[in-house]
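Weekly puzzle thread! Below is a chain. First person to post its structure in token form gets bragging rights.
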Amino acid sequence: MPKSFRANIGNTLLHLFMILFSLAFIIPFLLVIAVSFSNEESLLKYGYKLIPVEFDLEAYRLIFGKPHQILYAYLTTSVQAVGGMICGLIVMSTCAYALSRRNFKLRRPIVLFIFFTLLFGGGLIPSYILITQYLHINNTILVYILPTLANAFYIIILRTFFQGLPDALVESAKMDGASEFRVYWQIILPLSKPALATIALFVLLDKWNDWFTSLIYIRDERLYTLQFLLQRILMEMEFLKTSMTYNLNMENVNLYKLPSESIRFAMAIVAAGPLLMVFPFFQKYFSKGLTVGAVKG
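Winning reply:
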């Protein structure tokens, strides 16, 4: 058998495998979209279908029933995610750059202290007392950003990346009269785009999906995050349906038409949609950033 023929068969099988592998991720996502636009009764009767048997927007109508509330939630979540990402990157990258410099005398004890916080945490109660009794930032937008400005794991990754850059770059810049901040800003940061983009995406995902902070510290409905608001809508619907089983009368018969299944999938689309558009911009930095940051411990 000719060598070129075997190579063509190998490439065909590889392409076939990659197509099937891609479909394994694409089809469930399309199913989530289809179910979110399906009628509740058709779901109960025919099950989940890639093409809705009966097209229905009731789930989205319920979610966006109060547009101003969803708008506030999107605004709060965006400020939390983008603001927290930018401020966090500034704090963590400056800290990591200082710890990567070999002439910094306190480097080892500070690294040990940061590593210690990875193993042992204070817990919820000390954090709650600190935020509510001393910092007084509960029920404000600052509670989403300030307590999570620095992440020990991300600082160690960035420090490892910075240490992998040639020292000659820093030394030659200093010989030309550059200050430490100018070296960090104009030399280190432009060379660290893969690592910074990867950490930025991690922080963005973490903050976008955060609902626990709203549950603990927020009482003003205008400061609810999107995830917490969606969870609250779902819990209220479950409460209504549970109540009906104990108090059935003609006034609440229409509540049986509440879309309990399709609204879960609609919530997934509403919550994840913006990040699906952002992810491709970070994807090209993903592999390089994590690989270089993981070479040294």
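Puzzle host: Confirmed. Bonus trivia for everyone else. The CA atoms of residues 86 and 104 lie 25 Å apart.
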